[in-house]
Design goal:
The complex is a heterodimer of chains A (765) and B (263). Chain A has 765 residues and is α+β, with helices and mostly antiparallel strands. Chain A folds into 3 domains: 148 residues, Aldehyde Oxidoreductase, domain 4 (2-Layer Sandwich); 352 residues, Aldehyde oxidase/xanthine dehydrogenase, a/b hammerhead (Aldehyde Oxidoreductase, domain 3, Alpha-Beta Complex), CATH 3.90.1170.50; 203 residues, Aldehyde oxidase/xanthine dehydrogenase, molybdopterin binding domain (Aldehyde Oxidoreductase, domain 4), CATH 3.30.365.10. Helix content of chain A is 30%, strand content 24%. Chain A contains 20 helices and 28 strands. In chain A, a hairpin with a 5-residue loop joins strand 13 and strand 14. Chain A starts with 14 loop residues before the first helix and ends with a helix. Chain B folds into 3 domains: 43 residues; 107 residues, Uridine Diphospho-n-acetylenolpyruvylglucosamine Reductase, domain 3; 95 residues, Enolase-like, domain 1 (2-Layer Sandwich). In chain B, 31% of the residues lie in helices and 22% in strands. In chain B, strand 11 and strand 12 form a beta hairpin. In chain B, helix 3 runs antiparallel to helix 4. Chain B is globular and about 55 Å long. Classes of the chains: A alpha+beta (765), B alpha+beta (263). Chains A and B meet through helix 20 of A and helix 10 of B. Bound molecules: flavin-adenine dinucleotide. Flavin-adenine dinucleotide binds next to strand 2, helix 5 and helix 6 of chain B.
Amino acid sequence: MSKFGISQPIKRVEDVRFLNGTGRYMDDTAPEGALRAYVFRSPVAHGEITTLDVADARAADGVHAVLTAAELDAAGVRNQMDAAVVKNRDGSRGAAPPRPILAIDRVRYVGEPVALIVAETLAQAKDAAELIELDVEDLPVWTTLAPGGEAIHPEAPENLAYDWAFGDAEQTEKVFAGAAHRVSLEIDDNRIIVNSMEPRGCWARWDGARMHVSFSGQGVWGLRDQIARNLGLDKGAVHVTTPDVGGGFGMKGFAYPEYFAVAEAARQTGRPVHWMADRSESMLSDNGGRDLVSVAEAAFDEDYKLIGYRVHTTSNLGAYNSGFGQNIQSELALKVLTGTYDVQDVFFAVKGIYTNTVQVDAYRGAGRPEAIYVLERLMDHAARQFGLSPWALRQKNFIPADAFPYVSASGETYDVGDFGRVLSRAEKEADLDGFKARRADSGAAGKLRGIGLCYYIESILGDPSETTKLEFTDTGKVRLYAGTQSNGQGHETVYAQILNEFTGIPMDAVEFVQGDSDLIAKGGGTGGSRSVTTQGTSIKATSSRLIENFTPFVAEELDAAPEEIDFEDGNFHARGTNKFIGLMDAAQAARDKGRDDLLVCEAETKLPGRSYPNGAHVCEVEIDPETGQTEVVRYTVVDDFGVLMNPTLAEGQVHGGVVQGLGQAIMENAAYDADGQLLTGTFMDYAMPRAIDTPFITFHSEPVPSTANPLGMKGCGEAGTVGAMAAVGNAVQDALWDRGIRRVDMPFTPLRVWSWLNRADMAAE
Amino acid sequence: MYNFDLIRPSTLEEAVKALGQDEAQALGGGQTLIPTLKQRLAMPETLVSLSGIDAIKGVCVHDDGRLSIGGGTTHATVAREAAAHYPGLAALAASIGDPAVRARGTIGGSLANNDPSACYPAAALGSGATIVTNAREIAADDYFQGMFTTALDDGEIITEVRFPVPEAAAYQKFEQPASRFALVGVFVARYADGVRVAVTGASEEGVFRWSEAEAALSSNFAADALKDLSVPADGMIGDLHGTPDYRAHLVKVLTGRAVAAAS
Ligand SMILES: Cc1cc2nc3c(=O)[nH]c(=O)nc-3n(C[C@H](O)[C@H](O)[C@H](O)COP(=O)(O)OP(=O)(O)OC[C@H]3O[C@@H](n4cnc5c(N)ncnc54)[C@H](O)[C@@H]3O)c2cc1C
């Protein structure tokens, strides 16, 4: 193992530029002289547009263009966003009502884009927006997470977007009917606003023949295709780029209306156009996350072995289908429906509901945290109901270590795992034995202490294929072209490490290229914890091909036969001689000899299977019963991520993921009133976790290397979030159980916790 | 933000004169006003920055023991310089916002704004302070007149706030989880002639004195003295973060904790 290769805790090289202010984010890259765009959004949640008059705005100082649906139409722009749909239980397809770029005749949520104003300055664009006359005849607003209400789309009566199911309902019912023990629990999963540190933004430039769109996203190729389609251009005439991104979390993984409108504005004005959301705009218009309610049931035999599992979920989609909105709580949640437990009789049904709120789509984990949250809250509840240890109940029901590869009820092939070993380690690391004493100490200080466990499993998703191109430059560097898209995770560092491992190319010789559809023909982007596994595998394969390509040339240089050439630690070596040449020197020699063909190497790989990171999160909370305040005081993670590519980066992903999970659990919540107005539209009312709200999070690795990829790794980008929600939830439930409280739902805000305690006290009196 | 003119006088007289114009508004630390402007919720023609007037900055102790704080003094300065003379007040200042907010925001701006969840109103009312302006002196009991409403006239500048220093005092702030303003905050101060209890964050009428608690604590300065008291939920603020019942409950809990912290 080399000093810079795999598994070394190397500090992130990109952090130097991020931390000293030389990162190049959306606003930093906007072309000089770009016009500024401002989006005029619907102020009401539902209604028919009776007047939309932009004449005064168009005539205002500095204004170059005002686009509405009418102008898009006149320009021949396809005023529609694309989205995937699921298949209903009855075989039909989920509703696919059109979602416009700019509102057509009707508005369906507060914040829906109605017009785009383009002016010399942002202030002028905002001034002009105040001159737009919009009259809307109100329609009834539906914000309830259940079928019903005035249809928001004719395609979806009762606002039911889809009715999807998996599993054998009858067989599962039979198992439940014959079970010795049954439990059921209704579980809310609150809606969050993603709040990436850098909001969404884009700019576009039209040179008369080609359209260049730059946006803050998670992959350039999908948007390229959609821009081409909607603007009626050839794919080859569209160039999409992404600069440094300040956080995406799935929210930036999909196309948004602004990108199309801004591109069209650039085409119409002949000037570059630049749009950047401010924080309040992001809160109104970014895809939300979670927002579902599930009724979960489990059946056990007389020995408390899990034999049946059934979940009915209702999922909020917002006002339209976002890119993958319908698939998240159905198909993606299914991947880990039964978690780490050996149970085959399952039924999972999901209804998707339209409401007059902004769209809901992927958020860190995308369906899998939601599924694990439900399962792990229910397993905990079952243990409590049966008077068993939650730890023992899980150990009893784990898929045994000798049962791998194991095909889960959802049809996923778990390659490897040793859940029992990981959980035993967690018991030790979290000092379960010492909990009693810690609880007593908290009690003496007037606090209720609880401990919560979540044993999660994650399935990495996304395109299993990825390409790597390596190119030696005439400045002595090696350019690494990747098809993934860092949003801050540290790809530049870990890819250079992997390249170093297999080629010896020094890390500081690597120039990283990503996010450019002209320079990189295709890629899968970033999402579903796929990046390091897919790109790393591809880097390994490309490295092998590179060495192979060079070997005959080097043999000639070293006066040896190709089969006598070994490659080790960055050097070619002629066996049985003392002749060596380093790869970088070999590249220089190839350049000198006109062998340019050797200086570029590209390979695509496809993962043979998914990997399944898993682990135990153990959380301890202290609740002040007088105020209802919950504090997370202790947090331990033991993860099986297989072989760690960079332990520091992996731990960082866990820390960030845990904070997002506990943020949702303790304080984050997006709330709308009955009129569909967002009540949490600024940080004055939307609570984000801060450093002071999070305890020290200890992380331990208990690896079982994956056999589904040649690196033996398991993607870890989402795992922290997947584990955190139920660990916190179960800890809060543990703290409150003895006070007679039998159901607790996120977010565990002081008001809600106090209200439960207060109600329980009153009921006890 | 809409366009405005900015002037930065160095004397009180010039500032008063500038504020006499139409659509002119004082700018303190800007920690409330600037966000309001950014959201285009206000449209002043001229902002008169008070930050250049040295005469209304600083903390000093009068011969009679009262603590005097200039209206343009930042929270950070109060946190630092009042600590020796009036630790309860200094601790309150140190609990406002974050370091950036404390470095800019001023006591005059906070009291002029009289946000129902702000901290300083509790200290001023709980200490029986005197709010001194360019025109007059106003007793705290007369100064606060409901949410965002005060006795100040248009263009009147808070130049100084005089605090009688109590024998003991403490502020207990229960933070609203998002804004970290006071969901409820209680300031308790014990003087030789009685105890004052001022509550912020709770009432739809803004900061108020809890007189039953004052009476009970004046005869027995112990959390126990509150045992049989309760605050009616009527008139308490109800929002996402707290129902009227919850706020009423917190008033009592925090008053008890403030007494414990002060004794
Ligand atoms: C992130 C954040 C967190 C905060 N947290 C808290 C908190 O926890 N507790 C809390 O109490 N406050 C909090 N605040 C508010 C902060 O304390 C403000 O500084 C204060 O409310 C206003 O003071 P200012 O000097 O900034 O006034 P400005 O914003 O400049 O002005 C506010 C108002 O007062 C007027 N004004 C200013 N100075 C004077 C004067 N000398 N005489 C007359 N009128 C004047 C202005 O015309 C304006 O109407 C927070 C603010 C922010 C941005």
